[in-house]
Specification:
Blueprint lengths: L4 E4 L5 E5 L11 H7 L4 E5 L15 H15 L5 E6 L1 H12 L4 E7 L9 H15 L3 H10 L4 H5 L10 H4 L9 E6 L3 H4 L2 H4 L5 E6 L6 H4 L1 H16 L1
Parallel strand pairs: 2-3, 2-4, 4-5, 5-6, 6-7
Antiparallel strand pairs: 1-3
Helix pairs in contact: 1-11, 2-3
Length: about 240
């Protein structure tokens, strides 16, 4: 499917921003997008089931979502892009790099785990339980109804109770053959596991973002933006 998208800025190179689960193209990465638009063409997409990209077909979500992004890039005549993804968006970015690597010039991720840590299954059950409570809150319902046109409850609870996390793709960062930046919030302890393996790959750069957790891009937007801009400038040289 062609995803709802927004094109902003000008430049000879294009950056694709992919949001985290439960958010939309316009509710996340606002500061980053404004900064990047000064020197790049920036595309922001609502991922499948989010924002205005309404869909109830969620059975093969990660792959379908990745193909949605590629199809939308085809529609926009964008052959090669830099991808910056957060959490869900980062997972989709890594899958795109795996199935259509020629379309990806560089990749920036935040909010991902590269290895399965001990106790992952139990932690996942606890997070699922918290999520089910959060989506019952009136303020959450009001906000989500406002930013999503489709059935957001179905989307964000789609993977509950499943062995869903695509470690087979996140673990491939150790072997990636193009410029990559992994940003990790210092308080996202599970995401710090395994980063020592990434130092063996000269293509991978790692930034530990202070005073941030799972979504470093949202918790420290100015610092995150500066790190990303530095990365993009260096790989141009």
């Amino acid at each position: 499917m062609i995803l709802n998208h927004y094109n902003q800025g000008n430049g000879s190179e294009t950056i694709l921003l992919l949001h985290s689960g439960g958010e939309t193209a316009l509710t996340e990465n606002e500061f980053l997008s404004k900064q990047l638009q000064k020197n790049y063409k920036v595309i922001r997409m609502d991922l499948r089931g989010h924002g205005k990209s309404v869909s109830n077909d969620l059975d093969n979500y990660f792959f379908d979502c990745a193909h949605d992004v590629i199809e939308t890039l085809d529609y926009l005549n964008e052959s090669e892009v830099h991808i910056i993804g957060a959490s869900l968006g980062a997972l989709i970015a890594l899958i795109i790099n795996d199935i259509a690597t020629r379309r990806v010039k560089s990749i920036v991720t935040t909010g991902i785990m590269t290895i399965k840590y001990e106790g992952f299954e139990e932690s996942s059950k606890e997070e699922d339980a918290r999520l089910m409570e959060i989506i019952k809150l009136d303020e959450v319902i009001k906000y989500m109804d406002k930013i999503h046109e489709g059935d957001w409850r179905k989307v964000i609870t789609n993977e509950i109770g499943k062995d869903w996390y695509p470690f087979e793709y996140t673990s491939k960062l150790t072997r990636i053959d193009k410029p990559a930046l992994l940003c990790i919030g210092e308080n996202a302890h599970h995401e710090l596991n395994g980063i020592e393996q990434l130092y063996k790959n000269d293509n991978v750069h790692i930034a530990i973002v202070p005073f941030a957790g799972h979504l470093a891009n949202e918790m420290q937007p100015e610092l995150f933006s500066k790190i990303v801009e530095t990365f993009l400038n260096v790989i141009k040289e």
